[in-house]
Amino acid sequence: MLKLLVVEDHALVREGLVRMLGQVESDIEVLEAPDFESALVVLDGEDEFDLILLDLALPGIDGFAGLDILRRRYPAIPVVVVSAFDDTPTITRVLNLGASGFIPKAFSGEALLAAVREVLDGNIFRPRGQPGARLDDATPVPPAKVSVRPNEIGLTDRQGQVLGLMVRGLSNRDIADQLGLSEGTVKIHATAVFKALGVNSRTQALVAVARYGIDFESVF
């Protein structure tokens, strides 16, 4: 029998997920927890689970920190994040922290079930054709509660350096001189940075740095 745990603070969403997940297969038990502390109590008090579905915006704990705790404390249980915050850096960071998948809350029930089955089959699920919300979209980015290293959101060290110098107000020519690169190479790195952050301008990139709390100390 499959055993799943849904960790979601909104009762309506949680109850909907529990009902939907009951369709994964005929022999399944889906438990629920309204917050992170309750989830730990359930995990410690029950037999082994096959999958945890975790909301990223739980009260009382940073979602990324909660994911990290689950991966360290229960390394044998795959965790899938289910969240409305489906921007590219968030998805990348979630998977870098060891999640087995990311399911946007905008998914249909059929798509959610397919994603869950893929993870249960031992695969990593990342939404295809999901560019992620941009910073000028209506979906807000979760506020940063802890600093984030550039590599946690999919940036290389060099891309992190370019972004860090952008934050300091340097032009592409100044960045090229600072890093010993050609201006064309800097532009290539800048394009990659914009893609990783899900933005299309320097201004939006600076907003992303502030929202994600990116710390550049590791790349300089």
CATH architecture of the largest domain: 3-Layer(aba) Sandwich
Let me know the largest β-sheet. 5 strands, parallel
What is the CATH superfamily label of the largest domain?
Response regulator
Q: Low-confidence parts, pLDDT < 50 over ≥5 residues?
A: 131-141
Strand content: 5-15%
Query: Number of helix segments?
Result: 9
Query: What is the global morphology?
Result: elongated
* Top-tier CATH class of the largest domain: Alpha Beta
Separation of the first and last Cα atoms: 50 Å
Strand order of the largest sheet: 2-1-3-4-5
The CATH topology annotation of the largest domain reads as Rossmann fold
- Along the chain, the helix and strand elements come as EHEHEHEHEHHHHH
Q: What helical percentage do the residues reach?
A: 40-55%
Number of strands: 5
What does this entry look like structurally?
With about 220 residues, the protein is an alpha/beta fold. The protein contains nine helices and five strands, in the order βαβαβαβαβααααα. The chain has two domains: about 1-120, Rossmann fold (3-Layer(aba) Sandwich); about 150-220, Arc Repressor Mutant, subunit A. Helix content is about 45%, strand content about 10%. It has a five-stranded parallel beta sheet with strand order 2-1-3-4-5, with helices on both faces. Helix 1 links the parallel strand 1 and strand 2. The longest helix is centred in the last third of the chain and has 15 residues, at about 185-195.
